[in-house]
TrEMBL record:
This is Aminoacyltransferase. Keywords: Acyltransferase, Cell shape, Cell wall biogenesis/degradation, Peptidoglycan synthesis, Transferase. Belongs to the FemABX family. The keyword Repeat does not apply. PANTHER family: LIPID II:GLYCINE GLYCYLTRANSFERASE. It comes from the Bacteria. The keyword Cell wall biogenesis/degradation applies. It holds the Pfam family FemAB. InterPro entries: Acyl_CoA_acyltransferase, FEMABX, PG_Glycine_Bridge_Synth. It comes from Streptomyces cavourensis.
Length: 373
């Protein structure tokens, strides 16, 4: 089947998102308002009868002086990735992006390759020969994913392999950690936590740590904790204005698209986190905590409250987002994997991000420039 592609309105795009059980928050119309420095456009795929069958949020980043664009579809487009005629979905998209003067395209197919249960990961951490997730047998493998990858390569797409566009695009995590809620009670979910998680939740409850939801005015409190965490863990924090823009854009699209949670003890906020929800999928987005009173386990209390609210809303997946694929004890990121694996969920590997050079000369020139930088 051949598909016709055209620009669609925000209303059309959002209506399509509402028909899907799971769409990345990065593929909602409001996300285009969050990303300053990018020009956003909503695209729709229409069949011969004129029915909307797929959609995408495209972000265009202008390259100075040459009047050309990098086109980015984070965790998208939202199409039938397992269709036998995948070329008929992607070819009209590429034709459209050429008409928009894009010289290079990056996209992130929302296709899961394999999953590992938390117990499998825990056992592998005790095995010195296992250095990465790929070294251990997966709990689940989706054979369709290799077919998708093969068709993309045949079309000329190149796996990004972690290559970044410098300041042009941050890239999305290939490995994430998820807790599946469908058909499970919260008691069942908590019983799958490891002993440390269950103990920490009880410690927070016994210490009378209270978790509340906040609003726009509480983002300054959240950001102070987030900055403290960034300094402690050695990463560059986003500015307060970024989160204020997120809140304004996402809650305007849907009142529960973004939530803020704060863990209090007495009159002090010890930990805070943001959560994003689209359909039946919820994401732990950003978090921060102070070094003071860490023995009260406020971060576990926040996560537990967010999970309870996610479950009550009918969501099927609570997504703790990015993890490392390393199992090396010397890697400082292993602690984050341990923390998330304590929830008893699953590590998931996605197909990763893929690049397509619409103009090979400009694409190669930019790649060389960024490499030399």
């Amino acid at each position: 089947m051949k598909y016709r592609i055209r620009v669609i309105t925000r209303k059309e795009h959002l209506a399509f998102v509402k028909t899907r059980p799971s769409v990345s928050h990065l593929q909602t119309p409001a996300w285009g308002d969050v990303k300053q420095g990018w020009k956003a456009e909503s695209l729709g795929w229409f069949d011969a009868e004129g029915h909307l069958r797929g959609a995408a949020l495209v972000l265009y980043r202008p390259v100075p002086k040459i009047k050309r664009y990098l086109a980015y579809l984070p965790e998208g487009p939202v199409i039938d990735w397992y269709a036998a005629d995948l070329e008929q979905w992607l070819e009209p998209m590429m034709h459209h992006l050429r008409s928009r003067h894009a010289f290079s395209v990056r996209m992130g197919p929302p296709v899961v390759v394999r999953r590992w249960d938390a117990d499998v990961i825990k056992a592998a951490m005790a095995e010195p020969r296992a250095r990465r997730l790929h070294d251990i047998e997966a709990t689940f493998v989706d054979e369709r994913a290799s077919g998708v990858a093969g068709r993309l390569r045949a079309m000329g797409w190149q796996q990004s392999e972690g290559r970044e566009w410098g300041g042009f695009a941050p890239g999305q995590p290939r490995y994430v950690f998820q807790v599946h809620f469908a058909g499970r009670t919260m008691d069942t979910i908590q019983r799958s936590f490891n002993q440390q998680w269950r103990r920490n939740i009880k410690k927070a409850e016994k210490a009378d740590v209270k978790v509340t939801t906040g609003g726009y005015e509480d983002l300054t409190t959240f950001h102070a904790l987030y900055r403290e965490t960034a300094e402690r863990d050695g990463f560059a924090p986003r500015p307060l204005t970024y989160f204020q823009r997120m809140w304004t854009a996402l809650t305007a699209e849907h009142p529960d698209r973004m939530r803020l949670y704060l863990a209090h003890h007495a009159d002090e906020v010890l930990s805070a986190a943001t959560m994003l929800t689209v359909g039946t999928h919820a994401w732990y987005s950003y978090g921060g905590s102070t070094s003071r009173r860490r023995e009260l386990q406020p971060s576990n209390a926040v996560q537990w409250r967010m999970m309870n609210d996610t479950h009550a809303s009918g969501a099927h997946i609570y997504d703790l987002r990015g993890i490392t694929d390393t199992l090396d004890e010397d890697n400082p990121l292993l602690g984050l994997l341990r923390f998330k694996a304590g929830t008893g969920g699953q590590a998931a590997e996605y197909l990763g991000e893929w690049d397509f050079p619409l103009n090979r000369f400009l694409h190669k020139a930019l790649s060389l420039y960024l490499t030399r930088r």
